[in-house]
Amino acid sequence: MDAAQLGKSRFLNLLFRFAGFTMESRLRSWLMPPEKTLLGAGLKTGQTVLEVGSGTGFFTLTAAKMIGKSGHLIALEPLSDFADKVEGKVRQAGYENVEVIKRDALKTELETASIDVALLYGVVPFPTLPLKQLLPEMHRVLKPDGSLAVWLFPTTGGVPTAILRSGLFTNQEKKNGVYSFTPAK
User: Fold this and answer.
1) What is residue 27's predicted lDDT score, i.e. its pLDDT?
2) I want to staple 70 with a disulfide (CB 3.0 to 4.6 A). Which of 41, 46, 122, 171 is the partner?
């Protein structure tokens, strides 16, 4: 069963409801200000950004504000309850530069070389997003001068090394706890 099918599961949506509550906590915002973490990704006005696993939207609205009205943010979330919550937040905030898609990140169906920055914030390592399948898809959708921004919590779990070993990305930098990688040619 793929992540999109799992995302429709009532059981999983119920199970992750508590996780969603903790994602929204004021304590989390205080301990991990989304603006600071997103600055590590180097977001700029006018970019097209893919947010993989947007969850309840902890980073979504801040990222949308950073890329401005001329930018485009695609919030990809397989869990229906979380995607619906993000859609509500986007609508309530009046953002027109955000598109919420209920889909599996392993099969984004996005155009090749259409994304400036792909955000993998707190979603790897995760069993439904195996790097061996996720990285080729991220490489495919990123523009040649794009960036894969990876924020890992609570541990790196060897992910930065695995990304480099894939041969699909080169190490660019680490800023504000965010690892940024450039697609290999």
Assistant:
1) 58
2) 46
Split into its structural domains, the chain has a count of 1
Task: Give the DSSP per-residue string, 146-182.
Answer: EEEEEE-SS--TTHHHHHHHTSSEEEEEEETTEEEEE
- In one letter, which amino acid is 148? L
Which sign, positive or negative, has the C-alpha torsion 164, 168, 173, 175? Answer: negative
| Chain centroid to CA 128 | 14
95: Cα separation from own chain's centroid: 18
Residue 61: CATH number of its domain: 3.40.50.150
Q: Which helix (H) or strand (E) holds 62?
A: helix 60-67
Q: What length does the chain have?
A: 185
Phi, psi of 74 (to 5 degrees): -105, 110
* Host domain of residue 35: 3-183
19, pLDDT greater than 70: no
Model confidence, pTM: 0.84
Q: Are 61 and 90 in contact (CB under 8 A)?
A: yes
State the Cα–Cα distance between residues 123 and 104, nearest whole angstrom: 12
